[in-house]
């Protein structure tokens, strides 16, 4: 039996492995990878024991606090926390990490920096587990930053590629913006409550006494203090979880090795933001008692989640890069989770987080398998026909795709998404998020079908794809295991048997009959079918044609596509469908199109491709343009201030001296005390 | 191992330190003013004039004041005045002799050209180095009295070369005697006069066995 | 009051003024070393033996060395000609600002009821200091150690610059 | 004037001298040295209060001075390294000319 | 010379004190303190002045013998008057100050150097009762005064206005700063073990014998031996002695910072160098070799100052011996030795000393283990770092010869 005081062992094991990895020479590949995998397996076992312990008393929060160091009269205290939320997360992270580690054995086999890779992976896992088991926001923040560092190292693992180095930098800096908010929130929280411990025998920040005190404080602007703190903390969560408007780093981060994408950008790190909000959910919900408040933190969370979910799905439609499609789908799914948190169903969010971790890791690893087999060819237009040569990968990838798309009843994604839809539909503030989720469901099914068809159906469209063959056993077995998980996990939280939900909240939740929310579920099924059907209709037949299409298409920018008249007719056919499908988005895109590209591109018939393209342009142009305008303002202000900033040290020093004299005179003569 | 070289070095110096006390062969220094090392035979610095006889150096100078050396001397440190009269040389022959023969060692550059050009083997290189003087005008100007050193001294300095020179001179002299004797015989035969007086014995010690001249 | 103390103060302030006013950079540094020694003398006078020796060791032994090194390395600067009118006005304003600060300080000190506690200097042995440093101040000591290490590395990196010269000649 | 006041005035004057130097001189090294002098003046205060002030922990003043000296050493090292870097970039260590962060 | 001698000690042991009292005993108490101090100064200056004089002679004699020549032997019996002849020569030589020199600094440099090196003599315990000044932080004082000497050398180099002198000054600065670090680090373990910074305390802590045979000197522990070695190497460098005499490398820099000095100022530099050497050796004796303690109990009848002098002379002769043996290092080798070898070694040695003092309670077979671990801790880093230091160094192979 494991107790909260032993919980530090879980992150300590991978940390030890990282240390071993760091100290082994470059040639010690077996030692480094063996240590990493053994440590992760050990951590997994410990996590299972911890889960068992937590489930024995789901309502309790077990914690063990200790003093880090004393500072004057006060002491900085840290601690470990064990409750079902932590335990589930631990099991998920260690299990997925273990499988990804094993997969990496095959994927990274030829890399010269093999042992460093495992060292970094272990470091990352240790930091992530530290985030999960921390009972102190300070410890959580430390681990959080370590996660950032490890992800920086991993994204930039192929640092010799300029794109990878730039992506690592971008990821690091973008998340840092969020982390700044996080840090400010922590400082404010510490100022307001005098503690950063989550649970501390009645003094922790998540405990009712402290929260009650906190909720009574209202700022001059009418904003409640817990709202402000929560929003600041949410900045950190949004940065890590790739929420709008900080989602820009996530697609670029795909420059890292694919197992990294699977581990960091699908299963674990990006989930950290969701986990963080779920962890401090009582804090976010504290302002709900203030009915009169101008803004509730959770409303913001829900709004951001909805925007992200929709945005990610729309952009994913137009992507041609295998991993980028998955990346935008991750953004979208994280938006779902945030939305679920925002509408109050943190349990639903965690449920979706767990299932998503499995099927998204599966998808990424499947993509990794494809990429590995196709000699690092990631462009879906240049792949194709892999279903015959890569049987296992195809089957498992299809399972993952269907789980993500939410194919009813069998696949886990359906159940977790259904939980979110259910929660969104019952939210009484606004129904807009609910509609956003519905559109998202269609789009998700659509682009996943497109992806699957493009990659696996038809004939190979490049020599690399033609020569692809099934990946080694060490890579396919993790796929199979994850596929089983992607199916089975859903049954832990069906409305009929809400085991997971009741375990997470610690209170028994009554089972609902399957048909109680029949209308909603039916709608969901219809929408999924619509998406699948549309995808099939468009890409099931396109396969043959693109096989004959010249490959320069891949490198061509959208503008060149306009001049390819011979393909107009076919494209306009499905473009019209897509436009009807995305009527709202298309209108917006059309408007943007006129502004950005002018009339030359305006007459393009292939609106669907175009819509997607412009959507991504929207991402770059409109959003970034807005940022540019804002930063121009900032710059102007800064220029005004900078007049005082001559760079002359003497001037500064003199000002300092004069100010000192003035202040001292004020104190001496004015008697100000 | 690091440091073993240092220890070896220390051992060497220690050995030398101890050795210099008990092993006289190691100890190479001579206490100069009291002890003097023999200079190598090839050493030479300033010229001197060879005289046949140590008792009468001025009377037996080989120099005949031909002034070739004076003319050849690059820094012109030699000053010679011929005598007005003639005096018998070592072999008793009447010869002009240097009335004044000065070498300014402050000017001399030890080039040895005077020695090489001298047809009479009368000027040779010396090995003196203790030439310190308190007056640079007179102290370093050597006159013929200071310059004249006997042939035996030359033998001490450069035995090989001296032997060669003596050999050569003896041969020449013998040839000259024979020539003279032949001329005398011819004269005697012609004039039936009493033969000339035999030449005096050479003033030098018996010669060592001739050494083959160095190439 | 103590004649020794007055002497120390006069010498220290005098050398400091001379150092700050001097034209020759090197003389300034050496005079300043003397001023630092004066401060050390004050510590010694006050009974803080350890601090005094540490002051000499660090300031005279190390800092002045490093400063001298920097003076030599930056010797070939194209500057320090005769101070122009700008320099003179700056000097004037500097002296005025410093005088104002001094005035405020002295005024404040004289106005404050600062009665010296009579009695001998608190005796503090090196052993005591060590115990304090390793006990209550251990965290600070560690922090200072880290700071020094970081500063050392930073200084090396800064001063080394981008080295594009030929590789080091191996012996 | 009590001895404590004398010590404090001594330190204040020393501080002002350092300040004047730091303000008046254009040579970066001298400015740095002026700042050193100011720091020394502050250290002087520590010792003065330790010697004459109300009794506290017996070693506090000295310990603060020791820490201060250590920090100053670090500061000087970095400062001089900066001076050398500026010199390398601009061939000058006049502080008026070093008005840009870029070299 | 403060501690009162107990009458139980031998006459010889008390002789200096008796002598002092005979001279100053008639004075009243305050004046007596002053007179005693002055007397200490006079005694130290006289003894070390003479030591300096004969040390130069000894150095020349020994160097001569090592090179198989007799050394100075003309002036006086065995050349014993040579130092005085040299002194007279130095005094009567013309004192040349270059026109471009910084006149004041040129004059101050040798004076400062000598004054500072004399200051270091104040805290060395020369005998059981013979400490000129007893300080609580005497070791710190010693190194503070020693550190300031670098300033004087720099002054000399700068003031000469000579490029060789300036180069030498920079070299000297680099060298002295580099070696200051191992020097300071090497005695920290001693302070750790004895728990005091006072020289008398350190010497007292080394008193006594184990089994009446092995003295408790610090050099007889593994870390003590290593620390002593590091200290001596650093001391060689700190006193600008061969093989670390780069500042005055005559083959490259004429005479380094001494280039523009002649006559009496030169003599002062010379004197300061020897004083520095003596002081550092004296400190090494105090820190590592048990100070004035006798090596064996039966030898305690010999007065303590004789033991101190003996140890001091041994070390000084070692200095000379090393000078006779080793060629000069190059500047990069010099700094590399300090930073890549001595400093890490000294740091590791600190850890070893900590281990040693933590395990002081071990006895029996554990004692063996303690020795073994400590020896490994000393020898291991030495070998490892030494390998790094000598990597790539081997007999030079010539390609074209």
Shape of chain C: globular
What is the mean predicted local confidence, pLDDT of chain C? Answer: 79
Number of helices of chain A: 29
* Full CATH superfamily name of the domain at 1-76 in chain C: NADH-ubiquinone/plastoquinone oxidoreductase chain 6, subunit NuoJ
Gap from first CA to last CA of chain C: 62 Å
Approximate helicity band of chain C: over 70%
Low-confidence stretches of chain A: 550-586, 596-606
Judged by helices, strands and strand pairing, the structural class of chain A is mainly alpha
Task: Characterise the protein shown here.
The complex is a heteropentamer of chains A (673), B (215), C (171), D (103) and E (401). Chain B has 215 residues and is of the alpha+beta class. Chain B has six helices and six strands; from the N terminus they run αβαββαββαβαα. Helix content of chain B is 34%, strand content 16%. Chain B has a three-stranded mixed β-sheet. In chain B, helix 5 (151-157) runs antiparallel to helix 6 (159-191). The longest helix of chain B has 33 residues, at 159-191. Chain E is mainly alpha-helical and 401 residues long. Helices cover 66% and strands 1% of the residues of chain E. The N and C termini of chain E lie far apart (66 Å). Chains C and D meet through helix 1, helix 2, helix 3, helix 4 and helix 5 of C and helix 1, helix 2 and helix 3 of D.
List the helices and strands and how they pair.
The complex is a heteropentamer of chains A (673), B (215), C (171), D (103) and E (401).
Chain B: H1 4-22, E1 47-51, H2 68-72, E2 78-88, E3 94-104, H3 113-117, E4 123-125, E5 141-142, H4 144-147, E6 148-150, H5 151-157, H6 159-191
Parallel strand pairs in B: 1-6
Antiparallel strand pairs in B: 1-4, 2-3, 3-5
Chain D: H1 3-24, H2 28-52, H3 60-90
Helix pairs in contact in D: 1-2, 2-3
Chain E: H1 11-24, H2 29-66, H3 82-92, H4 103-119, H5 138-159, H6 163-194, H7 199-205, E1 209-210, E2 214-215, H8 222-238, H9 250-253, H10 263-288, H11 304-325, H12 331-358, H13 365-390
Antiparallel strand pairs in E: 1-2
Summary keywords:
heteropentamer, D: 103 residues, mainly alpha, Helix Hairpins, 3 helices, elongated, E: 401 residues, 2 domains, two-stranded antiparallel ribbon
Summary, kept brief:
Chain C has 171 residues and is mainly alpha-helical. Chain C is 73% helix and 0% strand.
